[in-house]
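Protocol step 4 of 6: record predicted structures for both targets in the notebook before any analysis. Target 1:
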Amino acid sequence: MVDADQIRAGRALLNWSQKKLADVSKVSLNALNNLERGIVTPRRDTLSALTNALEGQGIEFLPGKGLRMQGEAFEIETFDGLHIMEHLYNDFLSTFPTGPGEVLYNGVDNKHFQELDDENNNAFKRVEKQMIKRNITERLLFLDGDTNFLSSQNCYRWIS
């Protein structure tokens, strides 16, 4: 069930005032204000009206306390193991099947990848060629002084 925090967050995501949401949902401004401040426990029909108004504007309520704009996809996938680079770069290729695209990194420590065995290094080079062919670029933020660059094709920046 949607709660007051999600109603307030949905309204903020749309950059709506309480008055705007109250008008669209046909809920009194006083009821909405009290609900968002946690003064009252909302009635089921009040929550339904507010939820419907926000969903009508593209808000998607997620399990737990989350929400997002409909169509936004945020997924986290973890790659580990011996063939990490191959998995990672193949994911880029599947994300941008026809190119172009851009991948952004933050806080990467490439020194772990400098010691790739020949099999992983060859896989990395094959995928890198495909990325270059498809115009898939990478921008990486490294800690100041880190010079463990894997590719000359990428854009590296240092941050302190």
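Target 2:
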Amino acid sequence: MNRLWAPWRIKFILEHLKSVNCVFCDIPKENKDAENYILHRSNHCFTILNKYPYNSGHLMVIPYQHTNDLTALSDEAMLDMQVCLKRAVQAMKTKLNPQGFNIGMNLGAAGGAGIADHLHYHVVPRWNGDTNFMPVFGETKILPETLEETHQRLISAF
């Protein structure tokens, strides 16, 4: 059996386990948008940089409604999320100049959701060559800038 070590994930796991509340419900209530890397708030959702990104600029669009059931969201909330996804892609095109995107939602733990109780979209900007020898052979992902730098680059586009 092969093993893939990802020791950077333990911080996420431990923070998620010790929290009795939902992090996606708690963060927008703190009103610390810059500190929490919130880029945009709308009527039904908010857009936030992923604290544990797969790539620089990796963000999420999250409904305020706490649910893991996509069908439980109102049509207005779904439309708002789609508009926010469009806005996120436009902001990244303007400020990060990616050559492509991965956009998706992992529903349920079996579907790959790290936080399975509160659904959310992922938007990951991609560049040709962003998967190179480091993650393939060195089991290390190199992110070229900090969350603070990415937040500063994107916030003006929102």
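Step 5 preliminary note on target 2. The first strand starts at residue 38 and ends at 41. The longest helix spans residues 75-95.
Proceed to step 6 after PI sign-off.
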